[in-house]
Amino acid sequence: MKRTNLSLRGLEIFQLVAKSGSVRQVATETGLSISTVSHHLRAIEESLGVSLVDHTRRPMVLTPAGSIFARHVEEGLRIIRRGETELTSGNLAQVRELRLGIVDDFDSEVAPELAQFLARAMPKCTFKHHTRPSHEIIRLLSEQKLDAGLATRPISQNTGLTEYPVLRDPFVVAVPTSAEVSPEDCLADRGNLPFLRYSSLQIIGSQIEAHLRRSRVSLPNRFELESNHSLLGMVADGSGWAITTPTSFVRAKRFHDQVVLHPYPGRGFARTLSLFATELYPQASAELIAGYLRRLIKRHFVDPISKNYTWLSPGFRVLESNLDDG
Q1: Looking at the 3D structure of the chain, how many domains does it have?
Q2: Mean pLDDT, to the nearest integer, of 216-241?
Q3: Is 2 among the domain residues?
Q4: Which is nearest to 137 in space by CA: 99, 169, 167, 109?
Q5: Where is the HTH lysR-type domain (predicted)?
Q6: Do 112 and 156 fall within a single domain?
Q7: Which residue in 203, 202, 169, 217 sits closest to 319, CA to CA?
Q8: Range with lowest mean pLDDT among 58-67, 78-87, 145-154, 312-321
Q9: What is the mean pLDDT of residues 36-41?
Q10: In a domain, 326, yes or no
């Protein structure tokens, strides 16, 4: 049987095209030109002597031969990546690539210092850094488009990913400094301040709504915002009140003098921020990243706000392991 000349890069490109059906999308994801992606795809087909995708359809679909080949390519690449993982595990200096996602809560204070640290620890590594909302980071990890990502733990904890807890972030009530209203009045919808919601499409928003339902608290839905700064900005100018977290509050520094935090009345609740990693990502590398994240978050978030709001301790704290996640 004649041996073919298949490149590893070409097989990776084929796998991406097989999943998306779009050369243009694969080009965007990989940073390659459309012509380069098409060249890799054609080279594999010519080497095998069969058509793997139907180039006339949009999105492209696999031919019967392509479907068979795709199954073997996925298994083969998984074995190769697992071999790379075993060889580089525990030897950070040999890590070649890291696709890392950071939830946008930490894009200003934590992400730059983390990038500098990883650049020193992994001198041969090519980094791809993504700042996204938590739900998008979890999705990208599930699609194998990221290796690791810091995100809020979803309500459904069955992500299929390895989790390294980093921070317990309790929910609190944020009201305008000028408003004479108690958290109990806010939850009872007494007074003239409307409730400002996070978007229900975000994990933080869905967690708040789930807790309100469990507590049988029903509040009018007039405002729903994706932007943390917009939400706390409206609280600051007296347009409403919100349920938020210390981490979200720290980010909105310019509104600190106009917003005051209160403990959540009754049964409190919290979100957990964790580093999630795919099953192929080395545990030693993930633990190193999680450990450094804990130090950065403690320095930039936990310690500064705990000085002004001493009642946040010990609920607002870094988590050293799953056993500390209470």
Answers
A1: 3
A2: 93
A3: no
A4: 99
A5: 6-63
A6: yes
A7: 169
A8: 78-87
A9: 88
A10: no
Judged by average pLDDT, the poorest of 68-72, 123-127, 296-300 is 123-127
Task: Indicate whether 153 and 287 sit together in one domain.
Answer: yes
The answer to whether residues 153 and 283 belong to one domain is: yes
Q: State the Cα–Cα distance between residues 217 and 197, nearest whole angstrom.
A: 14
Q: Are 104 and 252 in contact (CB under 8 A)?
A: no
Question: Above 60 in pLDDT, residue 89?
Answer: no
Per-residue pLDDT at 1 exceeds 50: no
Q: What's the pLDDT score for residue 311?
A: 96
Q: Is residue 3 part of a domain?
A: no
Q: Are both 99 and 82 inside the same structural domain?
A: no
State the pLDDT confidence band at 184, using cuts at 50, 70 and 90: very high
Nearest to 97 by CA among 73, 109, 81: 81
Sheet order of strands, 126-132 included = 126-132, 97-103, 148-152, 270-277, 162-170, 317-318
Selection from 193, 195, 275, 191 nearest residue 231 by Cα: 195
On whether the CB atoms of residues 247 and 303 are closer than 8 A, the answer is: no
Do 188 and 43 fall into the same domain?
A: no
pTM for the full predicted model:
0.73
Q: Are 264 and 177 found together in one domain?
A: yes
Q: What is the domain range of residue 249?
A: 172-268
End-to-end CA gap in the chain: 60
Instruction: Tell me, yes or no, whether 195 and 283 share the same domain.
Output: no
Q: pLDDT, tens digit, for every residue of 48-87?
A: 888 888 888 888 888 988 888 888 888 887 777 666 655 5
The pLDDT mean for the chain works out to 87
